[in-house]
């Protein structure tokens, strides 16, 4: 396990932050799990959720959000995808397609969660990976959790990061800075981003910054028949509100806006995003009819 992976947070005495190796076809993913201290064996029936970062992102980006969600006694996982941040990469470009990354995600979650239901949350290009993982489950039972109860797309880069004005597909440091509220980062955050990019495999960065939703993804997601939510920061300058509203409409999903947040609402306003997710997961209990979550 890399020495600089996330570790136990001493400020949260009742919460465990557990680094993980999560097996996957292209090599194990480095992940982190947050849960309350106590017994959490494979038969634990509480809510599990997994978070997938996008281009220039990393699992640590979700920690402010996860620390709020764990207070509701949920078990939470976040991963670095193949070649991203602390997960080693491979040189084969085929490993970085949406389908391949989605396969990695499905296998890793299955192994870590004992085939228990897992709410999926993806950000940016990671939203496309999470969406593809859900779409791939239709008609399939191998290497997938028994059920994805919900799918949440946070600031989904449906048309790819390359569409950001003035940022080329391989201008990764500027791409990362553009995702922050106001397009500005502190010196400390800037150094963190540079270190993260230096550890990432170029193929991973190219794959995620150029990823866009295939034409059949909407139809495949609707066929999956699960409740979906699209969330966006009110000050997002990377993905337009018109685009996220259109994606939500096509999917038959709810659309929510996080105030005082840009493209990274899980960092800018994690408390507000946590409330949205908790409400969504609670109302999507199996006893709630699917029609309740059709777009209105």
Give short descriptive properties of this protein:
alpha/beta; 8 strands; 10 helices; disordered C terminus; 34% helix; 296 residues; eight-stranded mixed β-sheet; disordered N terminus
Give your account of this protein's structure.
The structure is a single chain. The chain has 296 residues and is α/β, with parallel strands linked by helices. The chain is 34% helix and 16% strand. It is built from 10 helices and 8 strands. Strands 1-2-4-3-5-6-7-8 form an 8-stranded mixed sheet, with helices on both faces. Strand 5, helix 3 and strand 6 form a beta-alpha-beta unit. The longest helix is centred in the middle third of the chain and has 16 residues. The chain is globular and about 45 Å long.
Structure in a nutshell:
The protein has 296 residues and is an alpha/beta fold.
Helices and strands: which structural class? alpha/beta
Number of helices: 10
The shape, in one word, is globular
The H-and-E topology, N to C, reads as: EEEHEHEHEHHHHEHEHH
Question: Taking strands numbered 1, 2, ... along the chain, how are they ordered across the largest sheet?
Answer: 1-2-4-3-5-6-7-8
Ranges with pLDDT <50 over ≥5 residues?
1-12, 162-169, 287-296
Mean pLDDT: 85
Alpha-carbon Rg, integer: 17 Å
Share of β-strand residues: 15-25%
Distance between the termini: 46 Å
Task: Tell me the major beta sheet.
Answer: 8 strands, mixed
Can you count the beta strands? 8
The percent range for helix content is 25-40%
Question: How are the SSEs ordered, and which strands pair?
Answer:
Elements: E1 15-22, E2 29-36, E3 48-52, H1 63-69, E4 75-79, H2 98-113, E5 119-123, H3 125-137, E6 151-154, H4 172-178, H5 187-199, H6 202-210, H7 217-224, E7 228-233, H8 241-251, E8 254-258, H9 265-268, H10 270-283
Parallel strand pairs: 3-4, 3-5, 5-6, 6-7, 7-8
Antiparallel strand pairs: 1-2, 2-4
């Amino acid at each position: 396990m890399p020495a600089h992976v996330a570790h136990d947070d001493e400020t949260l005495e009742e919460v465990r932050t557990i680094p993980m190796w999560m097996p996957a076809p292209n090599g194990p993913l480095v992940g982190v799990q947050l849960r309350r201290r106590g017994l959490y064996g494979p038969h634990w029936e509480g809510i599990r959720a997994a978070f997938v970062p996008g281009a220039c992102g990393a699992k640590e980006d979700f920690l402010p959000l996860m620390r709020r969600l764990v207070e509701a006694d949920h078990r939470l996982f976040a991963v670095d995808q193949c070649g991203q941040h602390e997960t080693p990469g491979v040189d084969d470009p085929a490993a970085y397609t949406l389908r391949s990354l989605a396969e990695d995600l499905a296998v890793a979650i299955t192994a870590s969660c004992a085939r228990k239901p897992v709410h999926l949350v993806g950000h940016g290009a990671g939203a496309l990976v999470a969406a593809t993982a859900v779409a791939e489950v239709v008609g399939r039972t191998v290497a997938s959790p028994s059920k994805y109860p919900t799918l949440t797309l946070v600031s989904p880069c449906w048309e790819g990061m390359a569409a950001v004005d003035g940022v080329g597909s391989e201008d990764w440091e500027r791409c990362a800075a553009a995702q922050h509220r106001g397009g500005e980062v502190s010196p400390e955050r800037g150094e963190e981003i540079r270190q993260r990019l230096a550890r990432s495999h170029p193929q991973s960065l190219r794959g995620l910054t150029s990823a866009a939703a295939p034409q059949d993804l909407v139809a495949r997601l609707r066929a999956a028949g699960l409740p979906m939510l699209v969330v966006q920061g009110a000050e997002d300058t990377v993905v337009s509100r018109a685009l996220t509203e259109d994606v939500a409409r096509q999917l038959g999903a709810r659309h929510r806006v996080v105030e005082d947040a840009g493209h990274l609402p899980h960092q800018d306003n994690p408390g507000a995003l946590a409330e949205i997710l908790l409400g969504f997961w609670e109302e999507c209990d199996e006893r709630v009819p699917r029609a309740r979550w059709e777009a209105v």
